[in-house]
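Record type: monomer structure entry
Structure origin: computed from sequence
Chain ID: A
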Amino acid sequence: MTRALITTVPFGEVDPGSLGLLDEAGIAYVINPIGRRLTEDELVSLVPGFDVLIAGTEPLTERVMEAAPQLRLISRVGVGLDSVDLLAARARGIAVAYTPEGPADAVAELTIGLALSLLRGVYLANTAIRQGVWTRILGRRLAKVTVGVVGVGRIGRRVIRLLSAFGARILANDLAPVALDETVRWVDKPTLYREADVVTLHVPLTRLTRNLVGAEELAMMQPGALLINTCRGGVVNEAALAAALRAGQIAGAAVDTFTHEPYHGELVNVDTCLITPHIGSMSVDCRVRMEDGAARNAVAFLRGEPLDELVPESEYAMRASETKPVES
């Protein structure tokens, strides 16, 4: 019997339909017995004997794959691939699928929610009133600020659409301009950092985007600027951000993803940083869509049916390029 290890949590709790798909296909499954994000060592001890991994953001390293000689498919619940060693998977004949559209709407909406909270000081007012301080914070509206969007892919496009509905002025940056229905001004990153009141990041974590925003970039921003990261931990240098916030170099930040999760770093003690525990995709409908997609990918693969959500060749090519030295 085909066996699947479901490492991501939660899975099947909001809607058991994804588990039903596995049952109907005759796939025996084991759900993460620890109930949290697994470490590499824990994965190595759990994966032997499984044909499929239905995975979250756990470290799916070469070592993990070596411990699972039967493994044929990694079916990722979500879109980020930085936790998957794609080249090691390919070398072992392990297919990798994902659900790139599943989380996009939820992440985009959370981004807007964080922007509103930062602009109106909602998170600061909540803390103050619980401490007995009645402070009516004078904030700003989205319609009256300039928002810089770095990364205009699935999520970035949705963020721009929502920002446009609010009437925000939008600066955009990506490797190359793309066609959009909304009005944006395409600029380079330094211009975006200098001119934007709010900077929001929507890029994958790669060699080129690791520490994309560090001390130098933060120094370019206005004293009243706000930074939002709902993409990937590691894109923002967390120590540099904490230092910039403490120094009043920028006014505030909202961070949903961290280099190491669960997060216990410096930003926890910075009042002007709004922190959330990687909840970008955690809306009921998007979570169900992601889980359902991952289960369907597993079933289709094991039946020998074509998959629309196999990781594209461009991702493998990008990963291969990252193994080469950067030219000086």
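Annotation 1: The first strand starts at residue 3 and ends at 6.
Annotation 2: The chain has a mean pLDDT of 96.
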